[in-house]
Amino acid sequence: MNRHALAAAILVATSTAAFAQSNWLTVGETVLVQLRQDGHRLTVRGNRAVLPGAQSVSEHIYLLEVPARELPKIAGTLHRKLRHCGGFMHHASEAEARRALEGLSAPQQLTRPSYVIANQATVTPMLAQMEEAHIAQTIIRLSSFVNRYYTSVHGIEASNWLRGTWQQLAANHPGISVVQFRHASYGQQSVIATITGSDKAAQVIVLGAHLDSINITSGRANAVAPGADDDASGIAGLTEVLRVLASSNYRPRRTIKLIGYAAEEVGLRGSQDIARNFRSNKVDVVGVLQLDMTNFQGSGKDIYLISDYTDAGQNQFLSKLVDTYLPTLTVGVDRCGYACSDHAAWHAEGFATSMPFEASLGQGNPAIHTKHDTYANSRGQAAHALKFSRMAAAFAMELGSERD
Ligand code: BES
Ligand code: ZN
Fold first, then answer.
1. Is 342 a catalytic residue?
2. Is the bond leading into 231 cis (omega within 30 degrees of zero)?
């Protein structure tokens, strides 16, 4: 048998599904150990040494096949036993899961930016216009939905509300369009606002946050999940960026996209769908920033840059942006240790991403994924989220207006 035939035979052999209705997950070592300890039904279908971006060489990523009805139980175990120290990526098919497992490393980025800061005259006055009260208002409105779960009617309504809100902000601005992005296997749509660039429109900067929420402690579709910090705070931060850019008639040279992702809480499904779509359409994504949990100040420093599943050069650029535009703020570094939010979906497709976080990892908001993740439990303020929103605005405008 020649090598190709052998490879094909192996592929066929490993493709035989063990369960009638299978789901495909990629997980880290800690998660696999925990799931086995708790006796979950699963089959390990492959593994890969060293996660891209991971700091520790001993880490492995595992491809699991699990029966569909085991999924909610697995999510429950991970929440109870590991709190937030272990996530999973959900994949629609075995082929996609294998691609995620093996094809992670090739950089997709076509344009590498220079990361030179040179637009103070535009950026400084724009940041001064940004206001805590607007961010607070969006957090309060979004957390008033019963939940924003990806299959619930409330989650669908929240997506529609966001589209409407962004459309209103963009009304009278011919350079800005707002659309929903439909996902094949669930009702909640992602929302995308596009500010088209003037002369390098093919080059794209992405600011993202997830619009869904989850209550992992009780039954799903009608469970109360305000998700005020996780992640209404991120969506509110993006909304404030859009408000000031639109009201000042800002026109970038590159295209800026603001994305509210659907279905993050169930395995980064919305962002994976979009990142994969952009990659297959060869979209020249220059940089991606994720805001996920920005309004609970749990540590001594203001902003913690997540170092794994992100781009070191772009993280350094963010630090420089803080020094330049938000010099009173302090920046720390921490790591998630797993694919903890949507930035990891872009990273997996080879794009440069960053994820600034509200606290050091162990000191983030303890109320997330419960009915207690309310605005009041972020001390009824949005001053912390405003810092991240300003950082995102500076990121979008500096990369968006870069000369070369
Ligand atoms: N916002 C969280 C991620 C997070 C939580 C980061 C705590 C840092 C500290 C995110 O929405 C989430 O819950 N992610 C899942 C993983 C995802 C792949 C389902 C998690 O952390 O368990
Ligand atoms: Zn989140």
1. no
2. yes
Measuring CA to CA, which residue among 298, 263, 280 is closest to residue 184? 263
Which whole number is the average pLDDT over 348-365? Answer: 96
Instruction: Provide φ and ψ at 141, rounded to 5°.
Output: -65, -45
1: pLDDT confidence band, cut at 50, 70 and 90?
Answer: very low
Catalytic residue among 230, 273, 342, 402: 230
CB atoms within 10 A of CB 234: 33
Question: Strand 200-210 relative to strand 22-28: parallel, antiparallel, unpaired?
Answer: unpaired
pLDDT in tens, 206-225: 999 999 999 988 767 889 99
Q: How confident is the model at residue 287 (pLDDT cuts 50, 70, 90)?
A: very high
The CATH architecture to which 120-401 belongs is: 3-Layer(aba) Sandwich (3.40)
Distance separating alpha carbons of residues 188 and 148, to the nearest angstrom:
9
**DSSP line for 82-150:** HTTS--EEEESSHHHHHHHHHS--S---S---------HHHHHHHHHH--HHHHHHHHHHHTTSS---T
Whether 176 contacts 195, CB under 8 Å: yes
Extract the tokens encoding 306: 């997540």
Q: Is 87 in the pocket of ligand 1 (CB under 6 A)?
A: yes
Cα–Cα distance, 214 to 139 (Å, whole number): 16
Alpha carbon distances (Å) from 37 to 59, 103, 271, 299: 19, 30, 30, 33
Burial of 104-142, coded b for 16+ CB within 10 Å and e otherwise, reads beeebbebebebebebeeebeebbeebebebbbebbbbb
Catalytic option among 212, 264, 308, 311: 264
H/E/C letters for each residue in 267-306? CCHHHHHHHHHHHHCCCEEEEEEECCCCCCCCCCCCEEEE
| Domain definitions of the chain by residue range | 13-102, 120-401
Q: How many residues does the chain have?
A: 404
Neighbouring residues of 69: CB distance < 8 A, sequence distance ≥ 6: 21
Q: Give the pairing type, strands 284-290 and 353-354.
A: parallel
CA of 378 to the centre of ligand 2 (A): 15
Residue 103 or residue 6, greater confidence? 103
Report which of 261, 151, 281, 135 is spatially closest to residue 204, judged by C-alpha positions. 281
The CATH code that applies to domain 13-102 is: 3.30.70
What is the whole-number distance in angstroms between the Cα of residue 331 and the centre of ligand 1?
Answer: 21
CA atoms of 228 and 374, how far apart (whole Å): 5
